[in-house]
Design a protein that fits this description.
Length: 430
């Protein structure tokens, strides 16, 4: 059993982010409620309630995430009849296909979805053992299964270079701003983004995704099977970023060069945009009166997805000369690269180890950041992964591209409360 976010949650988020199906939760009401709250937090723009959903008791007066609400009787007699009735009821209201996600409790009852699927009901059963999967595995499984069911077999390449953005979605910090940033960088190279399946695309965008030249795997740990499905069915190659996700200036440049090489386009305009932004930021840092240089040889710790942790860790060490204390990737996708890099700088001992020192900067999830700030001290906390703590994101916080670089540096440096050399500051002037 996985005690952190598991594959059931990942599958639900993948299904809901595609918007092509109604996601029927086969489980207890609490499983639905907690997921519904998280889903609302991950969608920054309000979507009106569909009043037709009141026609089905499985929606329970909500327009998202219908649920079977299994109880003691269902555990004894099975959930097959209730799931079958729920699928018919839900699809009769919205007209969409229904994807069925099992919670841990429901998976122990062993519903025969093959029999339900053969009744003529338009259903996509996500019937793997989701509770034993990580969030990333469950997300990838559901995304691959649903896309594989809804995409037509035929495809036709677009006349101009085009890509899909895979493995990036509503679970990412500021995903709407991040997608806009990625679209802008690719557009400057003459490359069009056809679809980002995890970012609430339209149905037309999803259908058009089978015509792309290339699938860019922003987080490979969340889209390996999905990219494989596109490759097998539509002959669309997948690109795994050599330097990890485009987090930090170096990794962003690396991804753009990789994409340009694969598509035969010029990355120059996009690289120039990054150079200009980095030059502006460097001038601001040089004027920073707390002193960026005071970070040299101080400690930092990270717990994040491996695709984000790898470039972020290298950025902190190579540019700011900081020393890793605790490095904990939440998946194994870039674990070989992370281990090799830590060995090259003589810090293999910090991989998967707990925090052992007072760190100047801690990169972790929003909840841990909130706890850390409340405790006080000199540490700066930077939110880099869910669950988040902020209710609104009005200023474009995200992790990718140049916007992501500014966010990380802003949080990192403005969270430092230590001053240097006893020089007067704005606070002292009071």
């Amino acid at each position: 059993m996985i005690l952190k976010s598991d594959g059931t949650l990942g599958a639900t988020l993948a299904s809901e982010s595609l918007q092509l199906t109604d996601t029927l939760i086969n489980g207890a009401g609490g499983c639905r409620s907690r997921t519904q709250i998280l889903l609302r937090d991950l969608q920054s723009s309000y979507r009106e309630e569909d009043t037709r959903c009141c026609e089905s008791r499985y929606f329970s007066r909500q327009s998202r995430l219908p649920c079977t609400y299994i109880n003691g009787n269902d555990i004894v007699f099975g959930t097959g009849a209730k799931v079958s009735d729920g699928i018919s009821s839900v699809s009769g209201v919205t007209g969409k296909r229904t994807s069925v996600v099992e919670t841990l409790g429901a998976s122990l009852i062993c519903t025969d979805y093959a029999r339900i699927s053969g009744t003529g009901t338009d259903v996509i059963p996500l019937d793997a053992d989701l509770s034993s999967m990580t969030l990333e595995e469950g997300y990838d499984f559901a995304m691959c299964r649903i896309l594989g069911c809804v995409l037509p077999e035929s495809s036709e390449r677009t006349p101009d270079p085009s890509v899909n953005i895979l493995g990036y979605g509503i679970t990412d910090l500021g995903w709407e701003y991040g997608l806009e940033e990625l679209r802008g960088l690719f557009s400057s190279m003459g490359v069009r983004v056809l679809c980002a399946p995890g970012c609430m695309p339209s149905e037309d965008e999803v259908m058009d995704s089978r015509n792309a030249w290339l699938n860019v795997m922003i987080h490979p740990e969340m889209c390996g099977d999905t990219a494989g499905m596109y490759r097998e069915r539509f002959d669309i190659p997948g690109l795994r970023p050599e330097s990890g996700a485009p987090v930090g200036y170096r990794a962003t440049r690396s991804l753009l060069v990789q994409v340009a090489d694969s598509l035969g386009v010029d990355p120059g305009p996009a690289l120039e945009m990054i150079d200009m932004d980095e030059s502006k930021v460097i001038r601001m840092l040089n004027c920073y009166n707390k002193g960026v240089n005071m970070l040299r040889w101080r400690y930092f710790s990270m717990e994040a997805s491996s695709s984000e942790l790898y470039p972020l860790m290298r950025w902190m060490h190579d540019v700011f000369a900081m020393v890793p204390d605790s490095i904990i990737p939440t998946d194994a996708e870039y674990l070989p690269e992370i281990a090799s890099y830590l060995e090259s700088i003589g810090k293999s001992d910090c991989l998967m180890s707990p925090i052992r020192r007072v760190n100047d900067i801690v990169f972790t999830d929003g909840i841990e950041c909130s706890y850390g700030r409340a405790e006080g001290g000199v540490t700066s906390y930077v939110e880099v992964r869910p669950p988040g703590i902020r209710g609104l994101n009005l200023v474009g916080r995200c992790m990718v591209g140049t916007v992501g670089c500014r966010y990380i540096l802003d949080e990192m440096l403005n969270g430092i409360v230590r001053f240097r050399c006893g020089q007067p500051t704005s606070v002292d002037m009071r």
